[in-house]
Every structure is written in structure tokens, then in C-alpha cells.
Design goal:
By secondary structure, the chain is an alpha+beta fold. The radius of gyration is 27 Å and the shape is elongated. The relative contact order is 0.20.
Length: about 240
């Protein structure tokens, strides 16, 4: 005779937990596919020939190489970040005029880098050949957005930790609404953006496997508990 009388409350909680773990695993697999798609798309667009600034008048693609920008390096804002060589410091962004067909008059264009200290300057010097090669071109990127715990900007010294069009326009002595808000031109180092590679697709796959293994372990605990307590099993007929 088959015995199947599992603990009802425990079973309900287990089913809910299993559904949650399986949903997390499925979400991580979706993230893996999404990230891989982004990397594939970036590889295609980044290998395409540089487009003129007129490309901003249509529907530009993230990572598109752009040629022809002429930034005014006499004025610039400093955005905290890393150089193409990986050293921390200030990325210098200057406004470059856009064609009349664009939505704004200027686009922020990366025009240099200031290391934080002599140590980071030495790092830059050690990687100078690679950095110079990387700075041969520019690509379209979405401007750096402020995180939940981002540091406060210093407009008086033109130092920023995230893109802020209105405040940057004031620091650059530009008219309100002059800066393009959806894009800026960053140094093309040939690598995918950090926000894509920080958690690569393979890691999302590993996370999914972890959630699925936790679901299997939970189901095993539920079965073992009910079997040892005589709630699930088989009893021969007398």
C-alpha cells in the first residue's frame, strides 16, 4: 500500500520555495542569453567602419565607431573613471559640435585622461603603447549614470561622478539644452563596456545552476523528512 500523507504546511512552503528557486534560475538563464546577445551585437558593430557624426541624426547603435568629432579641448569637464590602461583618474570630456540635424548642438567627447597620482601616472606610462593605440578612435556610449550610492559632484571644479547635462552645461558655459543627453563619445579601447563584462554570460549560467541545485536539494530534504517520518512510503498489505 502506497503511503502519501506529506505534512501539508511544510509541503505548501516547499512548493512555494521551489517555485521561487526555479524562477530565479530561469531569470539567470534569460540574463545569460541577453548578455550574450549584447556581446555579439557589440562585436558586430564595433568592427564596422567609423561612421560620421551624421549617424547621430538617425538611429545610432551602442558601440558604433564615430569619426569626425572636433572637441573644444580648451573647456572640459572631468568624469571619474579609468583610463584605457585601467588606471583610476579623471576622464576629460569636451564638447564637440554636432550637425544641424542632431537633437542638440554638442556631444561630450572624451579628449584625455588625468591620473589620480604619480603611481597611476606610472601605470599609464607602462601601458602607454596600448593606450595610444586604443585612443585612435571614439565610439558611441550611453553616458555614465549615477548609482544609488554615487559620490556627489563638484561643479565648481568641474568634477563629476555621473552625467548631469544641466550642471555640465553650466560648467562648460554652454546654453541650457545644448548637450546631447542620450549619448557621448568615449575612447574606443576595443573591449565591450564594463557594465556588460562585469558579470559575463558564463557567470549567469553558473548562478542559474546554483539556484537549480538548491531546488533539487530542497526537494530532497522534503522527501527525506517525509519518508523518515513515515508520511511517504510503501507498506505491504497484511
Amino acid at each position: 500500500m502506497i503511503i502519501f500523507r506529506p505534512y501539508p504546511v511544510l509541503t505548501l512552503l516547499t512548493v512555494m520555495a521551489l517555485a521561487f528557486l526555479l524562477a530565479l534560475g530561469g531569470w539567470q538563464l534569460e540574463r545569460q542569453s541577453w548578455k550574450q546577445g549584447l556581446l555579439d551585437a557589440h562585436a558586430v558593430i564595433s568592427s564596422s567602419p567609423p561612421a560620421p557624426l551624421d549617424a547621430l541624426c538617425d538611429d545610432p547603435a551602442f558601440g558604433q565607431p564615430i569619426a569626425g568629432a572636433q572637441p573644444d579641448t580648451e573647456i572640459a569637464v572631468r568624469v571619474f573613471g579609468r583610463s584605457a590602461g585601467g588606471a583610476p583618474g579623471w576622464r576629460l570630456f569636451a564638447p564637440a559640435p554636432l550637425p544641424e540635424c542632431a537633437e542638440a548642438g554638442f556631444i561630450l567627447t572624451e579628449a584625455g585622461f588625468e591620473p589620480l597620482s604619480a603611481a597611476t601616472a606610472a601605470t599609464e606610462a607602462a601601458t602607454a603603447p596600448g593606450v595610444q593605440a586604443a585612443r585612435a578612435g571614439l565610439r558611441l556610449e550611453t553616458p555614465l549614470r549615477r548609482g544609488l550610492f554615487g559620490a556627489a559632484d563638484s561643479p565648481d571644479s568641474a568634477e563629476f561622478y555621473a552625467f548631469d547635462a544641466a550642471t555640465m552645461e553650466a560648467a562648460l558655459d554652454l546654453a541650457p539644452g545644448s548637450l546631447l543627453t542620450g549619448w557621448w563619445l568615449a575612447v574606443d579601447d576595443g573591449a565591450p563596456p564594463a557594465w556588460i563584462t562585469a558579470t559575463p554570460p558564463e557567470r549567469h549560467g553558473a548562478y542559474a545552476l546554483t539556484w537549480y541545485l538548491m531546488a533539487v536539494a530542497l526537494a530532497g530534504v522534503w522527501i527525506a523528512l517525509n519518508v523518515t517520518r513515515g508520511r511517504i512510503g510503501w507498506r505491504p498489505k497484511r
